[in-house]
Amino acid sequence: MPRILVTIAFFILGLGVAQAEEKIVMVPHTAIYDLQLETASDKSGISGLVGRMAYEFNGSSCEGYTTRFRFVTRIDMTDSPARLTDQQMTSFETANGKEFRFVSKTIIDQEVTSETDGVAKIAKGEMVVNLKKPKEKEVKLKSAAFPTIQTIEVIRQAKAGRHFYRTTLFDGSDDADRLTDATVVIGDRVEAKADNETKVMGKLGNEPYWPVTISYFNDDENQDGLPVYRTSFLLYENGVTRDLVMDYGNFSVRGKLQTFKLFDVQPAKETCKE
């Protein structure tokens, strides 16, 4: 998922060797979610929100993982004109979790307001981020998880019956020069229940899932210890997510799965070529 938008460079409490070695197969797919305003406080100044999120995931544990993401919203404001926001990101992540390439762009009312372009590499317990945009520079950070590895690890923890852990991640967001701390809460596994989203998923809608909530923290932005934002979703063992809620504090957005398609892929090989 976007920011939402997860060796394994995790700071995980109590992760055992058996779980770390278990193979998780993420299914290549494309998913489109319709977005609606869930809640909004008076402080937010938001009177309405509609939009759409498109997410494309491809790759394998041999080839690495490619993600394309687009998040478009129209936000109606109480005391100012409506605002159209278009966020786009493309990334590639090596299967061993050691390298992450990313390009992103944010457009507000047809004006590009931010761009990032760079590559992050992990070696010897340290991450080095080489950026082309927003300006050329090198950033050194501590080792952390990249987005797909984060998702795989959430699935591992869920399958192991663990309900809470902390982690640190890097996803190339903002100016791509910092890490984000996160806490992950995983509910009990839920057997399939038919609804409009599971109908869209076809046979995969018959699989069980876990409710997951991830809270993201950044002391530079929120020094009161509260999360910068929080995302909740239903997570399947194959990496598919649905019924998303993105909570930014003063307002929240719900995303419902409207279109889902699996990519035609070759059966996974037992071993990868060096």
Structure notes:
The protein is mostly beta strands. The protein has one domain. It is 9% helix and 50% strand. It contains three helices and 14 strands. A 14-stranded antiparallel β-sheet has the order 8-7-6-5-4-3-2-1-14-13-12-11-10-9. The longest helix is centred in the middle third of the chain and has 13 residues. It is globular, with a radius of gyration of 18 Å. The two termini are 29 Å apart. 32% of the residues are buried. The N terminus is likely disordered.
Regions with pLDDT < 50 over 5+ consecutive residues? 1-20
Distance between the termini: 29 Å
Shape: globular
Radius of gyration: 18 Å
Average pLDDT metric: 87
- Helix content percent band: under 10%
Total of helices? 3
| Class per helix and strand makeup | mainly beta
Strand count, sense and barrel status of the largest sheet are: 14 strands, antiparallel
Number of domains: 1
Strand order of the largest sheet: 8-7-6-5-4-3-2-1-14-13-12-11-10-9
Counting copies of identical and different chains, the oligomeric state is single chain
Q: Secondary-structure element sequence?
A: HEEEEEEEEHEEHEEEE
- Counting DSSP E segments of at least 2 residues, the number of strands comes to 14
> How large a portion of the residues is in β-strands, by DSSP E?
over 45%
Protein name: ATP-binding protein
InterPro entries: EipB-like
Pfam family, one: EipB_like
